[in-house]
Amino acid sequence: MRRGLIFSLSSNVVFFLSGYLLHFFLGNSMPAASYGIVGTIITVLDFEYMFLSNGARQSLAKEISMKRFDIVDIVKKTISFQLIIIAFFFAVNFFGAPVFGIVLNDASLDFYFRVAAFLIPANGLFVILLGINDGLQQFGISALLGTLYPIAKLSVIPLILFVFKNDPVVGLEAGFLLALLVSIALGCILLVPCRHKLAERRSTKRIQFAEVASHTLSFSFFFIVVSLVLSVDTLVVKAVVEPASMAGYYTGAVNFGKLAYYLMSAFVTVILPVVSRFVGEGKLDQAMQKAREMVVIAFVFILPMAVIISASSESLLAAFYGSDFRIAGSALTFLSLSNFCMGMTVMLNMVLTSHRSTHFSDLLSIGSLVIVIPVFVLAAKFFGISGIALASLVSTFTLMTISWLRMRHDIGDVMTRRSWMLLVGAAILWLVADVGFSRIHVENIFVLAGIYVIAYAIYVGALVAFRIVPLSGLRKIV
Asked: Where in the cell is it found (predicted)?
């Protein structure tokens, strides 16, 4: 499990670094209003990708790991259902493009959404390859594909500089499509040596298409919760908050706020197939132990990053984008913690899904659909970008708490004494970092990165010194 987690985290770190390199180029070469348009396009794509990707990927990973049905039959029927979902979202983007322009108060978005429609089929097929490798627990191959894709996305930079000088948004979309096509080609090639593993999972028992559809939609529907909180807020800001430059500032805050979720998604990738395998073998105690280990690892390595970014939000935005982005500092303070809470929510629900049906996650999704969007609109209208970011934190913390309580009631408590101590340590870290960054103003990204590394090292050293995490235990985690 740890090896798979390291692979997945490494892939997500590359995704994060290449993504910020891309946004550094975009944010520093465009006016804030134009950058807001790019953020809007990416936000809608992220929303659709979240629905399109996670349903098929997680469903495949779970079913292949549990070894209940013929693997080839599972893959064929999942692809068939995925094509139905692809057709739906393609139609939404291509034929519904004028509606996006009206709702988001920008007629120029019409053409860009038609172009974006062609990214949907490529992404839908790419995640099928990821789901197959996750289910076979070939996390190294999944990580390789997940590493190639964000690196290939950097083709956006030369495309904008040399091919699409007059329309950088189209250059962005062309680069994304090229990256997906290259990643799909490599994924298909890497499946060839794995034919023996596929042959070992052959069976006469076939899965029903209705079951595939139900599982895929259940996972997808749950990830609507994630999509709403991680994506809809940017669209609400674009539609409601004036002036238009505020959408650009908020996009900058969102980009750094999502770091915690990107890293937590590595845990989600690993925990579902690992826990599902133990549940399928009837080893429920071992499954629960793995879940507790994952929580401790997340609190040791990911939560401190979210806390430090939250406490230094103004300095980070000023160093990366420019001093005018300090206006989004409060928004990033809330968003960094909000995204960690959402990552924990997803991880807890994946453990729940491994043991039980997805009904709880479905209900959580329905409740969020009814409540979150109106709350975001009101928060943005009356309190601006800081208000909507705070609403995001309150929403994700509530979802995380409800998921934890449900898991403790149905399966067992993932929170150990060590976990609670790590939460207290993170709270102290935030207070110390907030005081420190309120006294110093750093606007050099390399100096700030050095401060982050030192602060992180001191914090982990303190955990070892106070025996919250024993040195032997830290070595095992690493």
From this structure: Cell membrane
